[in-house]
């Protein structure tokens, strides 16, 4: 039986893929890899389709034992990797044999490593996806993060080759302040001009409330336009009549702690949302950690679509390296 | 033929990054705004537009999730504007095929009472229960009168969201009879599974245990989400409510609560459901008459 044996799970490691699409209307968030670029790149390196399931770790990587010969790649956050105690590179495909053990040292840059194994993690699909959504306990391995002693089934591997690496210029950067391109709008009319200026002019610090649901930020204060609240909204100036929240949207309950909603977020509610981080830059926030700084850079739809095309073309270049 | 013009401000179109389009029908809640959101989203669904991933009607707005590699968001907005222009009037022959559902609720139950007492420091009125507070600020003589009003008229499911299966419900009574309560000053970190809550002008049943900011009024014995899909009403979908459903939150006693819980545990519970052709125009013309008809259909 081809499996991956979990010697230690790391801090919070889950099975993720490109996400569970098509159920947002019932309140089901997409889940899926927070950093889609790194997830997809890892799959390409080991010869998987981009939608195959990988492992997403957070801050502390897992320790894993292989039970057969596979090709493996680790992308995303930078952490010294070793196989049976010998160093192996990140962003590069390498071969493993039965009994080999992969382990991680402390992360040196970024927050989330992605581990792809040729054949993919073959847990059962739930509503068309293997992504874990822990709040309702579905998808992934029994709907939860990995635990010591878990055994993860692997799929049938196709012919990948070791040694293929992603060149430095295609890898993500980890700047000291992460710029997040943002389409301003939704209910941004709730902020005063000074409030919007402050939102865009502040370098926001990521608090410890930063996970797959969302990132809560601190560093500035945003003023709302005074008004008589519309019927049904509730009395707080940050309240609106409950509406749908785009993934990546930013809300400001209380006016001083913006929250960026991410892959496992609530899909709707009654707080004013003031803009949305573009899909390509959700990859970047996924690699920012507690204590790091982020800033919001206003862009229009055309720039958001251009960022998306740029991510696609970088992935296509990786694809051409492996073929 | 009765025609009700949907007199609403022009909708506002916004891009939620590259993957979402948000359309605000109105800033205030009204059944007119919700019906307009339902009408436009139903028309969009009927078109099966390639690249549209999710169509999410909300209370007084709607949200579309799309794949911009297949459909340009600006092109989608063009289509939505055209649909809005054709949705300015509701005629009596426009009907929403819907389900009328009996949803039992144990109001003023011991579980939500225990929870709300733990979070008094986050509440507007620490010396009252949520029901006592809501009765007072809405001008009811006491909790029994408030419960009569909550259980008396049906609600329409105006939106699903927050977490899987959570129905936002808006009571089908004129504005002057709407119950309105604020959300907690700071959200609770705990809410019992299946709690019946109320915030702004909306009631909800919480599908899972977790955080929440709505006032706590009771608890439902039957689930709205069944991930294991064992109950008969959940065989096809893990989520029971659908936007446009009509729910009657009927007050039950502890004996009936325990009975329904036992049926749920045994896997035999099924909601009482009646199909109904709902006419928004007819409803807006005479809400009380249509509500009586709905309840008559439900219990006959």
From TrEMBL, chain A:
Q: Show where the Carboxyltransferase domain sits.
A: 25-315
- Source organism superkingdom: Bacteria
Q: Which UniProt keywords apply?
A: ATP-binding, Hydrolase, Nucleotide-binding, Transferase
Q: Care to name a GO molecular-function term for this sequence?
A: ATP binding
Task: Cite the Pfam families for this sequence.
Answer: CT_A_B
Concerning NCBIfam families, the annotation shows: urea_amlyse_rel
Record protein name field: Biotin-dependent carboxyltransferase family protein
Task: Name its species.
Answer: Amycolatopsis acidiphila
TrEMBL record, chain B:
Give the record's keywords alphabetically: ATP-binding, Hydrolase, Nucleotide-binding, Transferase
Q: Name one Pfam family in it.
A: CT_C_D
What residues form the membrane-spanning segments? none
Q: Does the keyword Cytoplasm apply?
A: no
Q: Where is the Carboxyltransferase domain?
A: 11-232
- Organism listed in the record: Amycolatopsis acidiphila
Entry's InterPro entries? CT_C_D, Cyclophilin-like_dom_sf, PxpB
GO molecular function term, any single one? transferase activity
Its name, as the record gives it, is Carboxyltransferase domain-containing protein
């Amino acid at each position: 039986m081809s499996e991956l044996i979990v010697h230690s799970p790391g801090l919070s490691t889950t099975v993720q893929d490109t996400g569970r699409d098509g159920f947002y209307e019932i309140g089901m968030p997409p889940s899926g890899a927070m950093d889609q670029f790194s997830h997809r790149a890892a799959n390409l390196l080991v010869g998987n389709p981009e939608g195959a399931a990988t492992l997403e770790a957070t801050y502390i990587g897992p320790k894993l034992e292989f039970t057969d010969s596979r090709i493996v790649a680790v992308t995303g956050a930078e952490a010294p990797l070793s196989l049976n105690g010998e160093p192996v590179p990140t962003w590069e495909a390498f071969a493993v044999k039965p009994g080999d053990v992969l382990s991680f040292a402390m992360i040196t840059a970024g927050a989330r490593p992605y581990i792809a194994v040729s054949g993919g993690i073959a847990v059962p699909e739930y509503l068309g996806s293997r992504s874990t959504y822990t709040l309702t306990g579905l998808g992934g391995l029994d709907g939860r993060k990995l635990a010591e002693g878990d055994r993860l089934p692997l799929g049938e591997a196709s012919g990948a080759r070791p040694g293929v690496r992603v060149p430095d210029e295609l890898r993500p950067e980890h700047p000291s302040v992460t710029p997040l391109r943002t389409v301003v709008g939704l209910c941004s009319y709730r902020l005063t001009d000074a409030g919007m200026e402050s939102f865009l002019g502040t370098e926001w610090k990521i608090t410890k409330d930063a996970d797959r649901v969302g990132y809560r930020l601190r560093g500035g204060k945003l003023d709302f336009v005074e008004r008589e609240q519309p019927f049904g909204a509730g009395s707080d100036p940050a309240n609106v009549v409950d509406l749908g929240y785009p993934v990546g949207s930013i809300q400001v309950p209380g006016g001083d702690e913006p929250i960026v909603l991410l892959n496992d977020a609530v899909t709707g509610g009654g707080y004013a949302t003031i803009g949305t981080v573009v899909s390509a830059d959700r990859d970047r926030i996924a690699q920012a950690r507690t204590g790091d700084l982020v800033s919001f850079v206003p862009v229009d739809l055309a720039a958001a679509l251009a960022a998306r095309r740029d991510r696609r073309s970088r992935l296509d270049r990786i694809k051409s390296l492996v073929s | 033929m009765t025609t009700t013009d949907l007199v609403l401000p022009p909708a506002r179109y916004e891009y939620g990054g590259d993957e979402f389009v948000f359309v605000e029908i109105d800033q205030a809640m009204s059944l007119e705004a919700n019906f307009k959101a339902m009408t436009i989203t139903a028309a969009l669904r009927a078109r099966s537009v390639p690249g549209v991933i999710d169509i999410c009607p909300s209370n007084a707005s709607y949200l579309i999730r799309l794949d911009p590699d297949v459909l340009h968001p600006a092109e989608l907005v063009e289509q939505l504007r055209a649909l809005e222009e054709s949705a300015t009037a509701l005629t009596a022959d426009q009907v929403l095929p819907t389900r009328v559902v009996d949803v039992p609720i144990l109001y003023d139950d011991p579980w939500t009472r225990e929870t709300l007492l733990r979070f008094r420091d986050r509440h507007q009125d620490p010396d009252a229960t949520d029901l006592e507070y809501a009765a007072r600020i809405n001008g009811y003589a006491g909790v029994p009168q408030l419960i009569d009003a909550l259980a008396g008229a049906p609600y329409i499911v105006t939106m699903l969201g927050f977490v899987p299966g959570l129905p936002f419900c808006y009571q089908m009574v004129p504005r002057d009879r709407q119950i309105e309560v604020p959300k907690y000053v700071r959200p609770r970190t705990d809410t019992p599974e299946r709690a019946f809550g109320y915030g702004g002008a909306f009631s909800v049943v919480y599908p899972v245990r977790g955080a929440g900011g709505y006032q706590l009024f009771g608890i439902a014995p039957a689930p709205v989400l069944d991930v294991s899909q064992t109950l008969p009403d959940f065989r096809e979908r893990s989520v029971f409510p659908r936007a446009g459903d009509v729910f009657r939150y009927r007050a039950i006693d502890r004996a009936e609560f325990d009975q329904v819980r036992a049926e749920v545990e045994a896997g035999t519970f099924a909601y009482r459901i009646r199909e109904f052709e709902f006419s928004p125009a007819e409803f807006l013309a005479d809400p009380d008459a249509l509500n009586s008809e709905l309840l008559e259909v439900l219990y006959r």
